[in-house]
Amino acid sequence: MKVLHVESGRHLYGGAKQVLHIMEGLKRHGVENLLACPTGAHIATLARPHAEVFEMKMKGDADVGMGLRLRRLIAAQAPDIVHIHSRRGADLWGGVAAMLGRVPAVLSRRVDNPEPQWLVRPKYAMYEHVIAISDGIRKVLLDEGLSEGRVSCVRSAVDPRPYLGDYDKAVFRAGLGLPANAPIIGMVAQLIRRKGHRHLLQALDAVLVRHPGAQVLIYGRGPLEAELREVIAERGLQGNVRLMGFVNNLPAVIGCFDLLVHPADLEGLGVSLLQAAAAAVPIVACRAGGIPEAVRHCLNGLLTAPGDVAGLAAAINSLLGDAVLREHMGAAGRALMLREFSVDAMCEGNLAVYRKVLASQQVLRPAGMAA
């Protein structure tokens, strides 16, 4: 079986990391992977051990040429199936290219925001099947009118191995110039509005009264960086909040947090939640999208209503004030990841969808049957 994966993101955010895991797992199953991605994308180098990589210009929804370039690639490489993993024009032009090339296409849906009804029918008509990365997203798709037989839930996953080692929290704090006992709250998310950074900054009014030495480390980059810096300055939080930027060594640091906070208004599942749980870090998050699937209330974290700043502050204070509870929740989160969010299960789920689609098209090749 030959699969062309299309990932249009330039940076190695959570979705792109999932594509890497999927291709690595599919290769173990005997699948031949091809990857189309933007020129210079971070995923390109990391994907080469698992896929033949084709870098090309990808400029978003208005880039009609993306469809033509993908169409030429499909004609030249003759994949059995095309798997679109991202938006940014890929979900439009990748679907068009596959349709013109008469190759069945699958779309991964990673976000839970509802789409305009006028867009739903023509967009999803291009795809034989849609893979939702959480049950929350699957419900959104069914509510939009897709039939149950065309939507499957295959949850995102993380490779837990980089998160299972011991973390030296004292050395980490010393490297930041912090006392060894400074409480550290981490947030790992793109700096975009739906991730809810503003809710965390507002909640700090109540948190710092009880935990004045708490430090908030915000990892990620995005269009809200300048605005967040202004808010931090306006609220006098420079001594307690740091924007850390994007880091490539997150597995080396995330386990040094006392708590991960993820106050998103909308979220498909949240890869940083899976990473934190694998590192045995308890979580405070919102009941949005697929988050309750990764954060089980009172098991590996606490959940609040989206936008509930008072509730968010209360949950943070509750966990910062109880080291034993944090330890118990951290251990429960790691066990949950090992039990329900394995990379092998994610790869097998995607492969099952491919086989189902190809069987329905009656174009399954002998190599695909052996995969």
From TrEMBL:
Domain of life assignment: Bacteria
Transmembrane segments: none
SUPFAM superfamilies to which the protein is assigned, alphabetical: UDP-Glycosyltransferase/glycogen phosphorylase (SSF53756)
InterPro entries reported in the protein's UniProt record: Glyco_trans_1, Glyco_trans_4-like_N, Glycosyltransferase_grp1
Keyword Transferase: yes
Pfam families: Glyco_transf_4 (PF13439), Glycos_transf_1 (PF00534)
Residue ranges annotated for the Glycosyltransferase subfamily 4-like N-terminal domain, each copy included: 14-160
Keyword annotations from UniProtKB, A to Z: Transferase
Keyword Transferase (UniProt): yes
Example of a GO MF term: hexosyltransferase activity
Domain Glycosyl transferase family: 171-334
Protein name according to UniProt: Glycosyl transferase
Source organism per UniProt: Parazoarcus communis
